[in-house]
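Q: I'm writing a short methods note and want an example of a predicted protein-small molecule complex. Could you take the sequence and the SMILES for S-adenosylmethionine and return the bound structure as tokens? Please keep the output block clean; save any remarks for afterwards.
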Amino acid sequence: MPTLKLGAVMANYGENEAQGKFWNDAPGQSWVKHDLVMNLRLGNISDILFDRLKGVSASNALDIGCGTGSTSIKMAETLAQGARVTGIDISEPMLERAREKAADLENVSFVTADAQAFQFEPGKFDAAISRFGVMFFEDPPKAFANLRSAMKPGSQFTFVCWAPYEENEFFSLPLKTVLEFVPSEYELVANAPGPLAFSDKDYLSGILQSSGFSNSSIEVVKTSVDTADTPEEDATLLMQIGFGARAVREAELDQRRTDELYQLFLVNSKARQSDGIIKYAATVYIVTATA
Ligand SMILES: C[S@@+](CC[C@H](N)C(=O)[O-])C[C@H]1O[C@@H](n2cnc3c(N)ncnc32)[C@H](O)[C@@H]1O
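A: Understood, no commentary inside the block.
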């Protein structure tokens, strides 16, 4: 019987080997392939994040774990003319896509590096943001202290991360489906690097505090991940991105079983569709803190 250790730590790639491999390998490439669709799905959450950024003025902003650069570009559009945005990410395929998208924007640039260990110029940035890009560090207090040192004292860090698994159907529904289909033991390792690493608010607060951030606030926001994709497109995507997809990969199913599982994903997607929109309930934390 296969054992699925979701969220387990497999350290040995400098300071973030497991995540480095993950985001440079098939999962990162899936994000690139589904870039447009994923950005649309995260649209509600982006709107909430940028709404909270309305009062922030900056001349030099940092986007952490920027992926394919959509939020870096949006941040540049949001800030006053002349402001610069730097996106940092550990995934070369995702940054390749980011660089293509920002090719005409001379004020947006990208750095390929592990944000936990990268030697930033101290106090260089007067704002930092992240959409789901800060939950993947092997050593979050060290990473956050490093990020804080890159920020000007008094400047604001604003990011969004996921609340617990049960409140996020985009993760939980596909995973439940896989686990019913492939009888497996699995464990969601609390606080392990991964999408849910900061779903425990006390743990997150402790990291912000121990890394020297002050005035931290964690706002719980209920929203949804929506898509106008067809159920077939949705089921295909969920076989490639997210916890369900990870369980699918780890189960190493043959083609016949993969096709059977896809049919179950399709049933879920059809059941979630109403008026042409497929909707998954989501809860996120909007976090702000002062460097
Ligand atoms: C869930 S994706 C989010 C991407 C992007 N922020 C977005 O919203 O589309 C997480 C991102 O964090 C990046 N990442 C993970 N660990 C990292 C690290 N140690 N340093 C920099 N980036 C990292 C991944 O490569 C990936 O692009």
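A: Remarks, as requested: Residues 16, 19, 23, 28, 42, 65-68, 70-71, 88-91, 94, 114-116, 131-133, 136-137 surround S-adenosylmethionine (CB under 6 Å). The first strand starts at residue 3 and ends at 4.
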